[in-house]
Amino acid sequence: MEPAHREFLDALLETASPSGFESATQQVWIDYVSEYADEVRTDDYGNAVAVLEGDEPAVALAGHGDEIGFMIRDITDSGYIQMTPIGGSDKTVSRGQHVQIHTDDGTVSGVIGQTAIHLRDRDGDETAEISEQHVDIGAEDGDAAENLVERGDPITFEQTVSELENDRIAARGLDNRVGIWAAAEGFRRAAEADPAATVYAVSTVQEELGLRGAQMVGFDLDPDAVIATDVTHATDDPGTPGKESSGVELGGGPSVARGSANHPNVVDAVRDVAETEGIDIQLEATGSRTGTDADAFYTARGGTPSLNVGIPNRYMHTPAETLDLDDLDATAELLGQFAASADAYEFSVDF
Predict the structure, then answer these.
(1) First and final CA of the chain: distance in angstroms?
(2) Which of 94, 121, 212, 225 lies deepest, with the highest CB count within 10 Å?
């Protein structure tokens, strides 16, 4: 990965973007794509769209810019913070973690309390619900805490990006800031190829709350085809139950989903591009739903040919999500080559 492109990735990962509070990350993304776009626009909730003007068809490369997190639900008289989840936060990995509370005046550091193993009754050692966990910011009492934070402030795990072996990284919130990186990078590569088609890059908001940003953009944009890029479960680690195995492996390239939202013509086009360009891909079965923005895009305006392309990711929705940078770069290349050659494909179905 080129240094400038890695700097863009790091900038996204270093910027907190819990659902409903994505503005800072969206600005990082907009600043990057603006150099290659004819126009960049946003809507009232912060969905961002970069436009490369061309002829028909119009294709969109999309990802969601939000991440899971927590929110201050209440502040006790003793100065502890009580939480509610934002999105699918995992109660089993939250205790004992360093966090940052994002206020209008900056960040406030804290830790999610965990009673020491020496003091716990381990016979009944069950994981407390997030609503029963607390953040300790060191405040003396409730008044002192309320001078620093307020109800409704979002909370994220403190960011750490770890460089692993074999060009792999681990971090919180790879889901799905790597998806908007791939959409932006695919857009850049398409722009450099001077495509005949109109190309959109899209960074949606509030996917983790129910695909809400994609519902807004899908109606407003009305493209001929959409590729929604998100992380997907790499099921090659020892902790994955056998019945959950999908065959998707870290380092095997992006996954191309089949079934449900994934339009056969778009699937065939992307597979053809991958074969032509020598890009390794993996196939993934999604019989009922993808669980990504593709599920919202494909029902927009009576039906939009859509596809979910997945970036293999281990340990999803934990502070230690792990991916292979080669998979990520290959995803961007696949998106860029697809957009650059989109005029060669037919996405609608004739009966």
Answers:
(1) 44
(2) 225
What would the pLDDT profile of 131-160 be if each residue is shown by its tens digit?
999 999 999 999 999 999 999 999 999 988
The CATH number for 282's domain is 3.40.630.10
Residues 178 and 282 in one domain: yes
Q: How far apart are alpha carbons 26 and 64 in whole angstroms?
A: 10
**Choosing from 67, 207, 284, 333, which is the catalytic residue?**
207
Active site residue 244: no
Q: What residue numbers bound the domain in which 77 lies?
A: 70-157
Domain tally, the chain: 2
pLDDT tens readout for residues 322-344: 999 999 999 999 999 999 999 99
Q: In this structure, are 244 and 294 located in the same domain?
A: yes
Distances (CA, A) of 255 to 86, 109, 231, 279, 325: 27, 37, 9, 11, 14
- List the chain residues with pLDDT less than 50: none
User: Quick one: how far is CA 96 from the chain centroid?
Assistant: 24
pLDDT of residue 350: 64
pLDDT, tens digit, 9 for 90 and up, residues 303-312: 999 999 999 9
54 and 89 fall within a common domain: no
Look-up of token digits 């013509």: 265
